[in-house]
Amino acid sequence: MKNRSIAITLVVSLVLVLVVIASFSIFGGAAALPPISGYGTDPKLPTPDKRLIPVINVAKATGWTNGEKPVAADGMEVTAFASGLDHPRWLYVLPNGDVLVAETNAPANRPENSKGIKGWFFNLFQKKAGAAVPSANCITLLRDADGDGVAEKKSVFLDGLNSPFGMVLVGDVFYVANTDAVVSFPYTEGETEITAEPTKITDLPAGQINHHWTKGLVVNADRTKLYVSVGSNSNAAENGLAVEEERAAIWEVDLETGSHRIFASGMRNPVGMAWEAESGALWVVVNERDELGNDLVPDYMTSVQDGGFYGWPFSYFGNHVDTRVTPQNPELVALAIVPDYALGSHTAPLGLASSLGNTLPARFANGMFVAQHGSWNRDPRNGYQVIFVPFKAGMPSGDPLEVLTGFIKDNSDNAMGRPVGVAIDKLGALLVADDVGNVIWRMTTAP
Questions:
Q1: How far apart are CA 422 and CA 424, in angstroms?
Q2: In angstroms, rounded to a whole number, what is the distance separating the alpha carbons of residues 276 and 391?
Q3: Stated pTM of the model
């Protein structure tokens, strides 16, 4: 009798799984709005489309073969600066021109993340998207000593880290944002390996869920404060507000004392940060919430106001309330700042780099480069590209321009690559980390 009950349970579970799988295609639906409607200072915000089974449209990670590469915009060319890497996610260019790349992924120990049937499917689709590989937990140094645009030297700069992401050099101290702490190491210009033990500057939110594990890192102009981007522990506070303490925020860390404060909050998953050259303001790209339909909610980039609150989880794009969140907080919603510039729904912007110092065509002289990792919760897909947002007087001033595309093969189900980190190298070229293709792409003006 017991075996029969087990068998019935297994059959029922299998049927439910098949129903859910079928639902992904049956109820996927098509986007009601063109992608560009979700960009700019006044994006279209349709009525939320809530459904039991959200839209699932994951591109299969395949990598590049037979000399394939992404497509550069007119007047530019793209070449491989380095290849054969292990899930390269983030980039940092040292003053001597050496390029550091964080080869990293989510930490292995997150037992409370993605639990249940929904979590099982999430992990399945993460694997399909190429996001389930083990973390190499290292930072690799790439050196192009002869200046031909190809790194001929590759060495392990730092090893034994814990899902490292953000990096910054301050004087002779090199800082790394692990998933659970900011740590520092002594640095001597030109060295290709650091063997010193880390010094902990401050702990960061991690723990058993650690849903958004990446921690971005920049330093202010006078080199006294670090800014750390910390993502939420959920999509829309479904794990409760207690586990969101000091998350969905940008921290300000005092380099002298290691103390920190919340510089800005209410950002579901802030990742890349950059300083805008004309105004000196801190800018950030933010991944907004999912499962409200193909055209909600637009991801965004925004200048960051000290003490500012940007809505998550209670509202989006100002005071548009997310009714899934309970209890609500109308007092905070009333204070929610409208982001400066929408970047399209579900585009997953991760990398952000100021155009300062680039030698690309003139249309890229003033603005921000943004790497959009690509959607899973939209049909048709969105993102999977690098774009440029032009600026004027310190603020966005027009439609985005394509920079690097062609990561999805012939509009198929295959993603040959996915862009993540972006940086300007010492010669003014744009570097793009591709964590599916395991390549660092280098973009220059065409001869």
A1: 7
A2: 9
A3: 0.92
